[in-house]
Specification:
alpha/beta, Cytidine Deaminase, domain 2, 2 domains, two-stranded antiparallel sheet, 6 helices, 14% strand, globular, Cytidine_deaminase-like, catalytic activity
């Protein structure tokens, strides 16, 4: 009888200790979760806009800024339109910088002020294809969908079809589009061979012989 009482008391103590440990673990988890700060996508897109404003404006191309960041929001690389020679695009520049400066991260996301291009008339690799070559890029955040000023773009559809997440950061669409079209910048006419070019809506000349299209 005494042995049975001892065992019963021991079992109660073990159960109490386990419950106490579980309660402490639950409290620790709750405290950790409460310290997690949600990623401020709008802030990162605003930074991408500031980068886009560094682009030299030309009437036949958009001015775009791009940021490659960790999923927690730490910036790894940046780029803007025509930052490097050869009519380079913002996402292209940011990717090239990261590939040449350090080992690639296990996982990253892209913030770009405009939907990445899915086609370049020159035959150069599109920004969507460059992103898809980087398996560590898991998601793209865009400030605005690309308007049909120059080419039809299916960047969002191609990324999602390949399993890359795509999200529009709402609230900055007008500003992203304004910066892309060089609003507030000195507008310099650009002509093609023999002074001829193809004029799009708004009177901007688009030179088809040179790859000045997209972001």
């Amino acid at each position: 009888m005494l042995m049975r009482l001892f065992n019963d008391e021991s079992g109660v103590k073990d159960s109490t200790n386990k419950n106490s440990h579980l309660a402490r673990d639950a409290a620790a988890i709750a405290a950790a979760v409460s310290t997690i700060v949600p990623i401020d996508h709008e802030s990162l897109m605003t930074q991408a806009l500031a980068i886009a404003r560094k682009s030299t404006y030309i009437p036949s191309a958009f001015c775009v800024g791009a940021i490659i960041a960790t999923p927690s929001g730490d910036i790894l690389s940046t780029g803007y339109s025509r930052e490097h020679p050869g009519n380079t695009h913002a996402e292209q520049v940011a990717i090239d910088k990261l590939l040449s400066s350090s080992s690639t991260p296990e996982e990253a996301v892209v913030y770009t002020t405009m939907e990445p291009c899915s086609k370049r008339l020159s035959g150069n690799k599109s920004c969507v294809d460059r992103i898809l070559e980087c398996a560590w890029i898991r998601r793209v955040y865009a400030g605005v969908m690309e308007p049909v000023d120059f080419v039809e773009n299916s960047g969002k559809a191609k990324l999602e079809a390949a399993g890359v997440g795509y999200q529009l950061v709402e609230g900055l669409e007008e500003e992203c589009l304004g910066v892309a079209r060089g609003e507030g910048e000195e507008r310099v006419e650009e002509e093609g061979k023999n002074g001829e070019g193809k004029y799009e809506e708004g009177g901007d000349v688009v030179v088809q012989e040179v790859d000045n299209l997209g972001c």
